[in-house]
């Protein structure tokens, strides 16, 4: 695994940049609703978007509405809910929870199942649901067995996505690798070398897609990964992005 380096690159428009949100642009927090965004981040992303000719997108498990709220006043290209929601060049497609009646019923059952488990949280995202146990690590086995049982009951149309102290139930068609591939067929992303920055198991299939296209995959933090470059923390990434946005200093070593 190589360390990330700062080096000059004069061809910003050759790249398409895809960025995860939680654990990548912002620090992981104990509760999913307690996220804190650096006040400079939206402006940094906006300047970098302009430098990249528009080819910058947020690729996250969060809903687009949540991301928009935390990155206002700007409306960036986005893939929310692992690609179930997308916005490219202002064209927004949202997921309709009413199209997932089985999942909606299951979310009610999950809330009942964890009602007496302090610290186990159900995050209802509309078209997916996440079970968090960061506040109750002793309940990991319970949370995982509950999630696996729910997916088994839902059938092949849904799958389980593991993450850091979280398991998410989402439609089988969703995935960060798939949505990055989709973006790369649309302007202004088409024909560019992709870069994807993430921090978790949910990002590994995105790394796989980017690597297969000869792009650059960047992992934030520790853990096994197929990413080609590693950075330490979200703060390190924010510094790199700020430098790139300000003076064009490309933040990753791509020569080796």
CATH architecture of the largest domain: 3-Layer(aba) Sandwich
* Model regions low in confidence, pLDDT < 50 over at least 5 residues: 1-10
Number of strands: 15
Q: How many helical elements?
A: 7
Question: What sort of overall outline do the alpha carbons produce when their principal axes are compared?
Answer: globular
- Assign the structural class, choosing from mainly alpha, mainly beta, alpha/beta, alpha+beta, or little secondary structure: alpha/beta
Count of the separate structural domains: 2
> What is the spatial order of strands in the main beta sheet?
1-14-13-12-3-4-5-6-7
Query: What's the main sheet like?
Result: 9 strands, mixed
CATH topology heading of the largest domain: Rossmann fold
Please identify the top-level CATH class of the largest domain: Alpha Beta
- CATH homolog superfamily of the largest domain: HAD superfamily/HAD-like
Average pLDDT confidence is 92
How large, in whole angstroms, is the Cα Rg?
18 Å
Bin the helical content.
25-40%
